[in-house]
Amino acid sequence: MTYTEDAEYQRLVHRMGESGDLAAGWRGAFLRTPRGSFVPDTIWAEDGPSGYRAVRQHEQPREWWARVNSDAVVVTQLDDGNPGGPGVATSSVSMPSLVARMLGHLDARAGHRVLEVGTGSGWSTALLCARVGDGRVTSVEIDGAVAHRAALALDRVGLRPRLLVGDGELGSAEHAPYDRIASTAAVARVPYAWVAQCRPGALIVTPWGTPLCNAGLLRLRVADDGTAEGRFVDSVHFMWVRGQRPPPASTSTGTGTSGEERGSVTTVRPQHVLDSVHAAFAVGLRVPGVRYREEWNSSDPQGTWRLVLWDEGGSRALVSVDGAVRQRGARDLWDEVAAARQWWDGAGRPPLTAFRVRVGPEGQQVLLGPASP
After folding, report:
1. Which residue ranges are recorded for the region named Disordered (predicted)?
2. Residue 42 vs residues 8, 39, 255: alpha-carbon distances, Å
3. Residues 91, 92, 94, 121: which is the catalytic one?
4. Does residue 19 have an active-site annotation?
5. CATH superfamily of the 3-244 domain
6. Where are the domains of the chain?
7. pTM, whole model, 2 decimals?
8. Residue pLDDT, tens place only, 157-208
9. Are the beta carbons of 244 and 316 closer than 8 angstroms?
10. Strand order from edge to edge, sheet including 262-265
11. What does the angle CA 25 – CA 203 – CA 160 come to, to the nearest 5 degrees?
12. What φ, ψ does residue 132 adopt, rounded to 5°?
């Protein structure tokens, strides 16, 4: 890294501090841990609405460094590393400001024993090492090739945390108990193994979402009775842990695979049902397994829009901007989504930070409102 590139990274850290994304206690760790030391030679830049192009450091150094030292996600792998895939991003170096906010919520301190789920590039692992010491950090990565690359990067900067290849949802009981657990990938169900491997009073910070809206950052505190409870503290977007990743998005524009099509007209404006992250988050909590996309007819000069809903059981719904509804399958997905939006409106449109989660051996509950005394 040249002086210019180092200066750009320093400016990035300074801007995060000024914006409030970077807590003062983490500033030194970020300054000592340049992001570029953990980004591979080849990264992937968005190229049009549904594709990526390779950007290689040795071929396009100026663009490569500009992306690495920006406050943006850097995609480092497509299709789990399998050639010839559809071009889905499956590993990345997260947006620096999101990493900073997440680590701020984690509140890791000297002496803490930390488990990280999802080593990825190794950058956040290195930041944790700078904060608590590399001998107190255990990091688990499910992808062997990604883990190997991270291990080399960490070794080059003189850090030797405990790196494991395996399913991060299982944690690492051998090295428990932990004072902090940080997941760099989103879950829809918090694995109870994480709670069970923590000391009482420990904190767990993880991105959390539903198939409809993957947008919450959850902060849990572990209680003496082996449960954990906490609330959503921020709006973030991270890739899913691989064991909970939704199947690839349907490319069908039909209304289902079986059953009679049911037509109706809605008075609920479909373009407004999911018009904010808070609305989509709340709706997603009440319509399990439902996913959506918005479609525009590019050949129509008016830009005709419609909402497509589906679940993995074969139910589908198409809702046009004029209110025409076509549904098929076991569920009336549009009716469920519209009712969920009406519930959210009736509840006073609470932000996602108004929801909390309780996790125990029997599973998890998502609740609205303050915790019981």
Report:
1. 244-263
2. 20, 8, 40
3. 94
4. no
5. Vaccinia Virus protein VP39 (3.40.50.150)
6. 3-244, 262-346
7. 0.92
8. 999 999 999 999 999 999 999 999 999 999 999 999 999 999 999 999 999 9
9. no
10. 262-265, 324-328, 316-320, 305-310, 291-296
11. 65
12. -115, -10
